[in-house]
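We read letters as residues; the fold follows as tokens. A sample entry reads:
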Amino acid sequence: MRNSTSILALLLAAALLTSCGQPEKIDYSGPTADWASYGASEGGGHYSAATQINADNVMQLEQVWEYRSGDVRMPGDGTVTYPNGEQFPAMGSGWQLTPLLVNETLYGCSAFNRLFALDPRTGEELWSVDPDVDISQEVMVNCRGVSSWQGEPNSDGICAHRIFMGTMDGRLLAVDGATGQACQDFGTNGTVNLKAGLGEHLEYEYSAHSPGAILGDKLIMGAMVLDRVHNDMPSGVVRAFDVRSGEKVWHWDPIPPGQTPELDANGDPVYQRGSSNVWSIISVDTQRNLVFLPTGNTSTDFYGGLRDNLDFYSSSVVALNGSTGELVWHFQMVHHDIWDYDTPSQPTLFEFQRDGETIPALAQPTKMGHLFLLNRETGEPLFPVEERPVPQGGEVTGEYLSPTQPFPTRPPPLHPSRLGPEDAWGFTFWDKSACRDTLAGLHNEGIFTPPSTRGSLFYPSDFGGNNWGSPALDPVRNIAVLNSRFIPAILKLTPREQCGKSSATSPQLGTPYCLEVAPVLSPLGVPCNEPPWGTLVAVDLDRGEILWETALGTLEHIAPWPVSMIKGPPNVGGPAVTASGLTFIAGSTDQYLRAFDTETGEELWKAPLPTGGHATPMTYRAGKDQKQYVVITAGGHFGMAAFGQVPSDHIIAFALPD
């Protein structure tokens, strides 16, 4: 009896051990969720109601499919020619796609603007359309996403579901969501020319990298105007197009109040050259018929002595009437921006709770690490914003400075406002001492130190702080999650007659100065400030308080052990959040996709990627009989090439095992 009991106990123990290694049964009773806009909803937030993947089972996620676009440009494949004739090696591609999930189909675009549809369960390509963009003429090779609209079919019986994509060479395409066939009733054979009315310019100076926003039967489009080249760049005009015909419904030209718009001989508008552009993601509020624009700064970025108040709407959030394009309000985050501190990310809508009242609100991150929380109906701050004196020690002839800049009192800054020689960091006394000497030799009065001819400390730099990928916003918990970056730089203006040819120098033609911006690195090639250089942070939006902050990633892949164990390398990308309390993000140089607990910041899971995942992930569950998938584009990023990021062409999906 004892022997049989012992054998039974052993068998039971073995069965228990075996069952512990088996995946839990997938719960198919939870909600389904699509991803119909770049930010998941029309007001952004990167939030999914899907709950199948949660804190208890996220460790079981595994890769289930991979799609390769085949579209990659390696660094140095070709040259870029500036208007003054100088030539430099081309940057590699930097694929930042966040796909859409609509009607149980994934839609996206390659880094070369090839538009495609995928089966969301397998990654199999269903159709693709190549608009034949000549990438040899483009400086920044990238596509962040597409837009989706659904209505009635056209006279051909197609295009009830339309997918729109802007291209690097300034076109706007409309295709049928089911087949990829061009919507012939849209513009000219499915194409609208976005360069109409912009005047003469070089091919690479105007590109549509970010998807447009859908408001009713209108598609609202901005575009990227290239930084740092000259002060007569194409206009930053924003236009609304009819989704069926492609006809322009309205335009907003960011000229100062009181300036009379210019018209050509036919009475058509001549858009103001050099004005603030909208290169990032636009939000809309259908209920209130509002359009929210995150504006860039006026050409050229680091010298404003010739702007003549043209930067009135620069580095702002601008709210427009969705029917007419007329201004409703605007809030400027940086006055007379000469730091390229343009508004980098999608104005993200949420409901703010105060004393039992619900206020329609908007969260706007900035490159300075300032998170502004505004009433989206009026533009009024939800917490006090103070106009504080800022450095006035300018030494640049012809420049003028704003005496104050706006500082939100809540939430507190997500980026330090100062880095002095006493803060220098290094692996050894030798490189720390070198960093201290470098910092001591720079013009440095803290945040908003003006550019100078001897070199100013640029901290925060124009890469952030926060950039285009943030924020993700959990509307149930009212938590915003943002990734931040802390890399000091040297900002130096050189008089025109002393400018030489260097790939590190931007010409800023038409101004008295060329420009050099370079990271402040030790002789060992690491930033001169103490790590972490990249973090993930959560903010309680109702209280305006930081809940937690954690280093994002390690120095794996870019440093040998044990240095590789240092946490918090530079990052770029963005997070996505779920109703089950998870935050997904890649973004770091160590090439992992990670999951964190949204309420605590605890890292719960990670999976390796073939290269940097510097896009914002998305997640979906297309049907009750389907799994929840987490999808990330791993294509590298041209801004991370110095940290070993290699361009590539992967879309990778993860799900729970069967």
About this structure: The two ends are 40 Å apart (CA to CA).
